[in-house]
Amino acid sequence: MAELGRTPVIDADAHVIESERTWDYLEPAEAKYRPQIIESTTDPNTRYWLINGKIAGLRTAATSDAAFQRTSERSLRNVAASAAARKMEDIDLRLAHMSELGIDIEVLHHSLWIEQVTNRPDIEVALCRSWNRWLADIWREGKGRLRWTCVLPTLDLEAAKEELRFAKANGCVGICMQPYIGDLMMLDPYYYPLYALAEELDLPIIIHIANGNPDFVDIVRTRYQRSAGFSAFRMPTVLSCFELLQSEVPATFPRLRWGFVETSAQWVPWLLHEVARRSGAKFTPTENPFVEKNIYVTVQTDDDHDYLIKKIGEDRLVIGTDYGHADTSSELDAIGIFRRGDLLEEQKQKILATNPARLYAITN
Length: 364
Known about the structure:
364 residues, TIM Barrel, eight-stranded parallel beta sheet, three-stranded antiparallel beta sheet, 13 strands, 40% helix
């Protein structure tokens, strides 16, 4: 952990990989909803979650340690965490690895809700409740170093508010939302009751790359397979930030914080330019919409940090490792690489510690 008096280094984007244990918290009457793992018939490194008879959520690809090591060698980026640490089967191992990487606290996000998990409220309530209780136990075992963002059954807002109160009392530091949830964008007034409660509980809304609109995802996967990950998941997240910048939502919930996670940050100047052109406004350093609207963005080690700071300042950038995954955003050494960069030490300290602590309201 951080030395006394030092703000802890926070990995703003880490993950847990769901396992059979995730669903051990289902009530007996909910056992029929328990997700099942099925093997791919074409790829031995790929398995799928089967929920209510359908493949759902993120495909659990490259699950073996050897597959992660091969990805590290191919990509020239370190992504090779052990399965026991990725799945939280050995929490002490995870904590030890965090220390090796220079990380005091990880903020854990799901891996399953990258896509729509179900369109049935009863199943969604059961799975979200089980997942949140799994993370609450991980938090209790994590010695203050494993914080998390909750998943909410948005098809049932009363159940979602109940889950949100439970999560806040059990180590949760944010709400993980998809940019699109079924036919609605996450800015739809339907979600205002959740945002009002989130503001009351001092919990930010974290928009992690995802897409809960199955029609959108299916079209992209079917027609544009080579760009599916970018088009189906990253671009909707960027679009939701664009809409947020122009919407009445920040003014309606002025104390609510927003985080856009795992999209890199090179798109931020483009969005500012587009919003300014379309509104006829010219943003100046004293009129920074990311500051005014409480919006934070995760950077990657190969982003142009100097340029980003010139555009939105140094108070709204955070950084993450994508721990647990093996994709284009993943880099377990991100903290160390960033530390060796050319920014001023006080700027590095903000991005590594001060800013994520403010975003997630982490005070210890």
